[in-house]
Design goal:
It is a single chain. This protein is α/β, with parallel strands linked by helices. It has a single domain (2-265), classed as Glycoside hydrolase/deacetylase (TIM Barrel, Alpha-Beta Barrel), CATH 3.20.20. Helices cover 34% and strands 21% of the residues. It has seven helices and 14 strands. The protein has helices at 29-47, 68-79, 102-118, 137-143, 205-217, 236-252, 258-265; strands spanning 2-9, 52-57, 83-88, 91-92, 96-97, 125-128, 148-149, 157-160, 163-167, 176-177, 192-193, 196-199, 222-229, 254-255. The protein binds zinc ion. The site of zinc ion (ZN) has 5 residues, from loops.
């Protein structure tokens, strides 16, 4: 059986543009709110509300998405059958990367999950910025009650100016319980990895169809994530592509919630 989880990373384009002046790299509140509305609209229409919005947090925009207007959107997502996750950009793109620093990760994840929970939200999943991850983050996730990670893009090895930012070489291409020693290997931690299956922006609809057909042929249960970004929703063309991609994928697999994925990954005992 093939299952997908639709995930949207709550990033805006200017965050990544290191050539812009500092004030232009910050998110725009009204623009982000309307993009999130479009995400909710599309996910409600196509997937009955099931998706995970990964809320961006970074040194640049630490608590920006904890403002009351955004908290209202996260409640709406949960209310419609979706979930929120924590998307830690523990980075200053092109300059510094903190994903290997357990102290920094503990501070970031603890602060953000705590703030969401204080607002009666239930963050259920984690994804590192640039799909970064360090095994030292596993106990931090456990302590904060997050048992799903979506940072794995099997085979990915991303360097910025020679510095490794994301390393998923040799990682399984299906869900697994992560090892405390090596995030790319199955082990006995309490955190389950749901790897990336489809990256909508970078793959043609034809390729998405072919990949879905291959996933469908696998034996046993397969759970994979499908990725888009908030900034995609500003473009009509990209919204259409996301919609078509989801409709294609629905023909091959079933879209599930974070909770359902945790139940499947943990062998039905959830
Ligand atoms: Zn991101």
């Amino acid at each position: 059986m093939l299952y997908f989880i639709f995930t949207i990373d709550g990033d805006w384009k200017e965050y990544f543009n290191i050539g812009l002046p500092e004030e232009k790299r910050l998110p725009d509140k009204q623009r982000m709110l309307s993009l999130i509305d479009r995400e909710i609209g599309l996910a409600t229409k196509i997937l009955g509300g099931k998706f995970i919005h990964f809320i961006h947090t970074s040194p640049r925009a630490r608590d920006f998405f904890l403002q009351p207007e955004f908290i209202g959107k996260w409640r709406e997502i949960e209310g419609r059958g979706g979930d929120v996750g924590v998307h830690c950009h523990a980075d200053d793109p092109g300059r510094a990367y903190y994903h290997n620093d357990p102290g920094k990760m503990e501070e970031m994840i603890g602060f953000f999950t705590g703030a969401l929970e204080e607002n009666n939200l239930s963050p259920v999943a984690f994804r590192g910025g640039y799909m970064s991850f360090s095994p030292a983050t596993i106990p931090v996730l456990e302590e904060n009650g997050i048992f799903l990670d979506f940072s794995c893009d099997p085979g990915r090895y991303l360097l910025h100016d020679g510095r490794p930012v994301s390393d998923w070489r040799g990682a399984p291409d299906n869900f697994y319980r992560m090892s405390y020693e090596d995030h790319r290997r199955p082990g006995d931690s309490r955190v389950f990895e749901i790897p990336l299956g489809i990256y909508i922006e970078t793959e043609s609809l034809w390729k998405i169809w072919k990949k879905a057909r291959q996933f469908k042929r696998r034996k046993g249960e397969t759970v994979l994530s499908v990725l888009a970004h908030s900034y995609d929703f500003s473009s009509f063309k990209m919204r259409l592509k996301i919609k078509l991609a989801l409709l294609i994928l629905k023909r091959f697999g079933r879209f599930i919630s974070a909770e359902e994925s945790l139940r499947i990954a943990s062998g039905g005992q959830g």
